[in-house]
């Protein structure tokens, strides 16, 4: 709080209203917080221009009339345009200022506040303050209470993109708060005290509770079965991706059998970010579970999709940036997978990969652990620690700890199989090869293992295991397969013919989607 | 027990620390009765993660050992990801990690040597046999023929009789020269050309929409 004091004192010196004397000057109460509040209010009520007022009223009307098309337009275009014009780096007007304009419409105010805080998180310098973080949390509570506590379906329909963004932001703010909380070093004692006395805010259990309830409420399972393209569909994947980013419970994620349906059916859904995030997390989960073939399939599917649809989003800058960033991450992960498990992928994805990541892949193929680490750190999701730090120990409580754990698990895994590409490349040259000969090759490469025998078996195992375990079935999908007969290794090479079917299916889907969009547009 | 536990794991209750005692007992039960339930075990580890004060090394170690019995599935990695990294360096967890590494890299000889030093193994019924099952899985995937001596070594220096039993179980035959014939790999592993097949499911959607 001491910082605040200092600030407001300085401000008081230069207070422009001081010159007008009289009543306005007296409203400075001496309490810095109230003053600040007052100033903020004063300023914002002062600058709410007609355009904004009209925009808000129009949006409110559209929401109340459930005119989805217009709501979406307001949300995606109107809000962003006005932000750029009026509030590039400063917050939107406070909800209290807006309240009289919209006639104290509670639901609208909640939605407005959601946007307000999201904007604070994204654009305002110095980020949100502790109070704002807390208020934003309470606002989410209100929103979710409104949705969850109603008996029937809530008479509030929002565009899919908005729904997705709400959940996405909710999770983002939770992540952000967790990170913020674990950096104790820079905080004043008051702030720490505040955190200590409010353990319920952004608490893991309440956040989980919300997500669980949303899933129950939205009847995801049933919806997916009949493939209702309802907006609430998105809750499910979000729910699981949240789980995952949280503590890496990839098992849960994959274990859900119906996600397959989701991935296939929703490939052409209308919320691109949702789709990308889902694929990203699913792919990452596969990677960590050592199911490289599945991971590669997942990544190349979505990357292909991005590649073909990217132009569509060029006009929406924020979205475009997000997609580009995600795209890079996924290419990096794909590169890792392909180094560990070479296989044939779609040509256009492959050429992109060669263009951008050839160096990285080469280094990884040469068993450069450092490169693996760099790539992984760049491309992995955020990992969080679910427990609050020890507020009494003032030092930073290792906010990176969860990340380090994942990195360690990953690198140990890589280390176990790092030799495999080398061996594979030797084996590819032969149809039969005595073990002694391979051992001779290998010893040049590494003297790590003294026992030639166990050495080779290591390769064998990971090799058989390193391949896909789809639905508990172990299949070797690598290009080279082999067996050992006595002292002789027999090698079988596999040639895979090019696949056209997928390409055509995708094109047909895409064409279908275009036709549908056109029909909608003409309508 | 399995059904009761499954009901505990549904929904938000999964994160209720009050269930921890039941779940821990269930872990011990799994160890004694040689059953396995990865879902419950992961839930226990997750609860430890949320409530570090309740953490019990013994239970965590048991869970890891149980995960090893389910090789070649990757359960062990999942469990490992849920345990704090400083805890991974503690005894006996660190020893178990070494064991896992030996198994993953198929360094079976070293695995059996190191296993002797770990007392906890006795608490997990059927641990060694589960591992042998895994070894057999690897052998079956890799070898066409293998010397009997080698096989015994891989399975943890077992007697001729036991080796014979394992071989019988998997339908391997022992010839007179002390060589075990595993399976005719030539049948399974050969140069092949894969041509594309399109399943009906993948085109069903198209056919439906273009009707």
TrEMBL record, chain A:
<dbReference type="InterPro" id="IPR000717">
    <property type="entry name" value="PCI_dom"/>
</dbReference>
<dbReference type="GO" id="GO:0003743">
    <property type="term" value="F:translation initiation factor activity"/>
</dbReference>
<keyword id="KW-0812">Transmembrane</keyword>
<feature type="domain" description="PCI">
    <location>
        <begin position="298"/>
        <end position="498"/>
    </location>
</feature>
<keyword id="KW-0963">Cytoplasm</keyword>
<dbReference type="GO" id="GO:0005852">
    <property type="term" value="C:eukaryotic translation initiation factor 3 complex"/>
</dbReference>
<dbReference type="Pfam" id="PF10255">
    <property type="entry name" value="Paf67"/>
</dbReference>
<dbReference type="InterPro" id="IPR019382">
    <property type="entry name" value="eIF3l"/>
</dbReference>
<dbReference type="GO" id="GO:0033290">
    <property type="term" value="C:eukaryotic 48S preinitiation complex"/>
</dbReference>
<keyword id="KW-0648">Protein biosynthesis</keyword>
<keyword id="KW-0396">Initiation factor</keyword>
<keyword id="KW-1133">Transmembrane helix</keyword>
<protein>
    <recommendedName>
        <fullName>Eukaryotic translation initiation factor 3 subunit L</fullName>
    </recommendedName>
</protein>
<dbReference type="GO" id="GO:0001732">
    <property type="term" value="P:formation of cytoplasmic translation initiation complex"/>
</dbReference>
<keyword id="KW-0472">Membrane</keyword>
<feature type="transmembrane region" description="Helical">
    <location>
        <begin position="267"/>
        <end position="287"/>
    </location>
</feature>
<comment type="function">
    <text>Component of the eukaryotic translation initiation factor 3 (eIF-3) complex, which is involved in protein synthesis of a specialized repertoire of mRNAs and, together with other initiation factors, stimulates binding of mRNA and methionyl-tRNAi to the 40S ribosome. The eIF-3 complex specifically targets and initiates translation of a subset of mRNAs involved in cell proliferation.</text>
</comment>
<comment type="similarity">
    <text>Belongs to the eIF-3 subunit L family.</text>
</comment>
<comment type="subunit">
    <text>Component of the eukaryotic translation initiation factor 3 (eIF-3) complex.</text>
</comment>
<feature type="transmembrane region" description="Helical">
    <location>
        <begin position="226"/>
        <end position="247"/>
    </location>
</feature>
<dbReference type="GO" id="GO:0016282">
    <property type="term" value="C:eukaryotic 43S preinitiation complex"/>
</dbReference>
TrEMBL record, chain B:
<dbReference type="GO" id="GO:0005852">
    <property type="term" value="C:eukaryotic translation initiation factor 3 complex"/>
</dbReference>
<dbReference type="InterPro" id="IPR036388">
    <property type="entry name" value="WH-like_DNA-bd_sf"/>
</dbReference>
<protein>
    <recommendedName>
        <fullName>Eukaryotic translation initiation factor 3 subunit K</fullName>
    </recommendedName>
</protein>
<keyword id="KW-0648">Protein biosynthesis</keyword>
<dbReference type="InterPro" id="IPR016020">
    <property type="entry name" value="Transl_init_fac_sub12_N_euk"/>
</dbReference>
<dbReference type="GO" id="GO:0006446">
    <property type="term" value="P:regulation of translational initiation"/>
</dbReference>
<dbReference type="GO" id="GO:0043022">
    <property type="term" value="F:ribosome binding"/>
</dbReference>
<comment type="function">
    <text>Component of the eukaryotic translation initiation factor 3 (eIF-3) complex, which is required for several steps in the initiation of protein synthesis. The eIF-3 complex associates with the 40S ribosome and facilitates the recruitment of eIF-1, eIF-1A, eIF-2:GTP:methionyl-tRNAi and eIF-5 to form the 43S pre-initiation complex (43S PIC). The eIF-3 complex stimulates mRNA recruitment to the 43S PIC and scanning of the mRNA for AUG recognition.</text>
</comment>
<dbReference type="GO" id="GO:0003743">
    <property type="term" value="F:translation initiation factor activity"/>
</dbReference>
<dbReference type="GO" id="GO:0033290">
    <property type="term" value="C:eukaryotic 48S preinitiation complex"/>
</dbReference>
<dbReference type="GO" id="GO:0016282">
    <property type="term" value="C:eukaryotic 43S preinitiation complex"/>
</dbReference>
<dbReference type="GO" id="GO:0001732">
    <property type="term" value="P:formation of cytoplasmic translation initiation complex"/>
</dbReference>
<keyword id="KW-0396">Initiation factor</keyword>
<dbReference type="InterPro" id="IPR033464">
    <property type="entry name" value="CSN8_PSD8_EIF3K"/>
</dbReference>
<dbReference type="InterPro" id="IPR009374">
    <property type="entry name" value="eIF3k"/>
</dbReference>
<dbReference type="GO" id="GO:0003723">
    <property type="term" value="F:RNA binding"/>
</dbReference>
<dbReference type="InterPro" id="IPR036390">
    <property type="entry name" value="WH_DNA-bd_sf"/>
</dbReference>
<keyword id="KW-0963">Cytoplasm</keyword>
<dbReference type="Pfam" id="PF10075">
    <property type="entry name" value="CSN8_PSD8_EIF3K"/>
</dbReference>
<dbReference type="InterPro" id="IPR016024">
    <property type="entry name" value="ARM-type_fold"/>
</dbReference>
<comment type="function">
    <text>Component of the eukaryotic translation initiation factor 3 (eIF-3) complex, which is involved in protein synthesis of a specialized repertoire of mRNAs and, together with other initiation factors, stimulates binding of mRNA and methionyl-tRNAi to the 40S ribosome. The eIF-3 complex specifically targets and initiates translation of a subset of mRNAs involved in cell proliferation.</text>
</comment>
<comment type="similarity">
    <text>Belongs to the eIF-3 subunit K family.</text>
</comment>
């Amino acid at each position: 709080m001491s910082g605040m004091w200092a600030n407001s004192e300085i401000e008081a010196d230069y207070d422009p209203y001081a010159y007008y004397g009289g009543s306005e000057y007296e409203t400075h109460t001496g309490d810095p917080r109230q003053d600040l509040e007052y100033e903020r209010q004063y300023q914002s009520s002062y600058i709410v221009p007609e355009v904004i007022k009209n925009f808000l009223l129009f949006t409110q009307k559209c929401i109340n009339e459930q005119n989805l098309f217009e709501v979406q337009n307001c949300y995606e275009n109107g809000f962003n345009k006005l932000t750029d014009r009026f509030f590039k780096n400063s917050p939107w007007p406070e909800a209290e200022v807006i309240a009289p304009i919209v006639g104290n419409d509670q639901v609208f105010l909640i939605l407005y506040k959601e946007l307000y805080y999201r904007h604070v998180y994204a654009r305002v310098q110095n980020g949100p303050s502790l109070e704002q973080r807390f208020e934003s949390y309470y606002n989410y509570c209100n929103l979710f209470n409104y949705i969850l506590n109603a008996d029937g379906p809530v008479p509030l329909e929002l565009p899919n993109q908005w729904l997705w963004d709400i959940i996405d932001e909710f999770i983002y703010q939770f992540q952000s708060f967790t990170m913020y909380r674990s950096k104790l070093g820079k905080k004043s004692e008051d702030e720490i005290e505040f955190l200590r006395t409010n353990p319920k805010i952004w608490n893991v259990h309440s956040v989980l509770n919300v997500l669980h309830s949303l899933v129950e409420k939205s009847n995801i399972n049933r919806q997916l079965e009949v493939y209702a393209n309802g907006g609430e569909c998105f809750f499910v994947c979000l729910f699981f991706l949240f789980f995952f980013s949280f503590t890496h419970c990839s098992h849960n994620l994959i274990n859900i059998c119906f996600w397959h349906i989701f991935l296939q059916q929703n490939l052409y859904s209308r919320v691109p970010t949702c789709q990308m995030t889902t694929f990203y997390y699913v792919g990452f989960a596969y990677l960590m579970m050592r199911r490289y073939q599945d991971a590669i399939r997942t990544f190349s599917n979505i990357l292909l999709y991005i590649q073909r649809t990217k132009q569509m989003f060029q006009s929406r800058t924020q979205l475009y940036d997000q997609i580009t960033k995600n795209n890079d991450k996924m290419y990096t992960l794909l590169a890792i997978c392909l180094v560990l498990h070479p296989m044939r992928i779609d040509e256009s994805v492959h050429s992109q990969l060669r263009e951008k990541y050839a160096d990285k892949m080469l280094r990884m193929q040469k068993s450069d652990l450092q490169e693996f680490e760099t790539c992984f750190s760049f491309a992995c999701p955020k990992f969080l620690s679910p427990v609050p730090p020890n507020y009494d120990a003032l030092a930073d409580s290792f906010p990176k700890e969860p990340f380090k754990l994942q990195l360690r698990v990953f690198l140990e895994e890589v280390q176990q199989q790092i030799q495999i590409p080398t061996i594979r490349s030797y084996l590819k040259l032969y149809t039969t090869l005595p073990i002694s000969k391979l051992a001779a090759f290998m010893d040049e490469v590494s003297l790590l293992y003294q026992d030639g025998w166990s050495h080779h078996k290591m390769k064998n195992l990971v090799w058989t295991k390193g391949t896909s375990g789809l639905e508990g079935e172990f299949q070797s999908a690598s290009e080279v397969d082999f067996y050992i007969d006595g002292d002789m290794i027999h090698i079988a090479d596999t040639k895979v013919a090019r696949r056209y079917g997928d390409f055509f299916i995708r094109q047909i889907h895409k064409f279908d989607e275009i036709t549908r969009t056109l029909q909608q547009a003409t309508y | 027990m399995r059904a009761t536990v499954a009901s505990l794991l549904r929904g938000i209750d999964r994160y209720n620390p009050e269930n921890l005692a039941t779940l821990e007992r269930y872990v011990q039960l799994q160890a004694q009765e040689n059953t396995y339930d990865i879902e419950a075990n992961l839930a226990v580890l997750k609860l430890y993660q949320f409530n570090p004060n309740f953490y019990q090394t013994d239970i965590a170690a048991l869970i890891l050992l149980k995960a090893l019995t389910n090789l070649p599935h990757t359960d062990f990695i999942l469990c490992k990801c849920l345990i704090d990294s400083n805890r991974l360096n503690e005894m006996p967890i660190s020893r178990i990690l070494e064991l896992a590494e030996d198994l993953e890299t198929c360094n079976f000889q070293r695995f059996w040597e190191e296993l002797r030093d770990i007392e906890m193994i006795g608490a997990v019924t059927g641990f060694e046999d589960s591992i042998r099952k895994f070894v057999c899985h690897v052998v079956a995937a890799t070898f066409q023929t293998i010397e009997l001596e080698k096989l015994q070594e891989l399975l943890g220096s077992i007697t001729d009789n036991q080796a014979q039993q394992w071989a019988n179980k998997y339908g391997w035959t022992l010839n007179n020269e002390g060589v075990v014939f595993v399976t005719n790999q030539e049948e399974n592993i050969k140069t092949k050309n894969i041509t594309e097949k399109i399943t009906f499911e993948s085109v069903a959607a198209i056919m439906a929409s273009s009707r």
